[in-house]
Amino acid sequence: MLCTRCRHFEATDDGVVCEHCAAAGAPPMAPPHGSHASAWLSSPVGLGRTVAGLLGLVVAADLFAIRADAMSYGVLGALVDGDTGADVERRAERADSLYAFAGSLQTAALVITGVVFLVWFHRVRVNAEVFDPFGHRRKRGWAVGGWFVPFVNLWFPRRVAADIWDASSPSGTRRSHLLLNGWWAAWVISLLAGRAASTAYRRAETAPEIKRALGQMLFADAVDVVAAVLAILFVLTLTRMQDTKARSGPGAAVPVSG
Q1: DSSP codes of every residue in 124-136
Q2: Per-state percent for the chain, helix, strand, coil, to nearest 5
Q3: Which residue range or ranges hold the DUF4328 domain (predicted)?
């Protein structure tokens, strides 16, 4: 059984606190509000690798979308310049088909990746609670629910991720949040830019307006590539941190399942 105070080391024979907490004269503590004594380490390695692979598909879908955006942007440029020949019409039809397909491809990749990412994110959140049950500003449920609440989803998941990151850092140290902040900033920018571009595209009625909207979409897709690459690095780094911390724990301190 784990120590009822630090939830990291094995409790002594009395099943209450570990030797470290007992030596410090620390009384048992209940888990903080919103945490659960049933927190149990589960290996995030398989899920982390799967998420990284799926994020690679997101990058591929975004790159394809950028190609489709650029093609449509070029065709709109020709139309704005007054070119209405048969060649432009053929290019326009092809660009429209690629643009629609790219949108479907991005949506499918995002949905599939999002589902697996949330499963992984919840798992590392529970693991982090075992590492440090008192270092979390939000309940477990926000690891998933925080992504779906309007406006709140712009900062709550980042806060949950920061707590997970800190709890998963090597004992006695705290790793920089640079990677986390870079990923989060790129993701928020791509999210807001994508919504603005989609709104502009729906409202566009003339060729120049559509061209401007496509320019915005190109920017949003490019930033999304950056966000996805940083997300891959974040997922792999955090997964490795948790795996290393679990394996380098004190003896039989915390069991790893899965």
Answers
A1: HHHHHHHH-TT--
A2: 65, 0, 30
A3: 89-240
Q: The domain containing residue 127 runs over which residues?
A: 42-247
Whether residue 125 sits in one domain with residue 22: no
DSSP annotation of 11: P
Instruction: Identify the sign of the CA torsion 12, 14, 18, 22.
Output: negative
Is 151 strand, coil or helix?
Answer: coil
pLDDT digits (tens, 9 = 90+) for 221-239: 999 999 999 999 999 999 9
In a domain, 252, yes or no: no
Q: 17 with 128, same domain?
A: no
Q: How confident is the model at residue 9 (pLDDT cuts 50, 70, 90)?
A: low
Q: Please tell me the total count of domains within the chain.
A: 2
Tokens 């039989």, located at residue: 252
Q: Helix (H, G, I), strand (E, B), or coil: what is residue 199? A: helix
Label residue 140 left, alpha or beta by phi (over 0 means left) and psi (-120 to 50 means alpha). Answer: alpha
Q: pLDDT category, 144, cuts 50, 70, 90?
A: very high
pTM of the model: 0.81
92 and 167 housed in the same domain = yes
Q: Closest Cα to residue 184, out of 147, 149, 222, 230?
A: 230
Among all chains, which residue has been given the structure tokens 């105070």? 5
Instruction: Give the Cα separation of 147 and 154 in Å (integer).
Output: 8
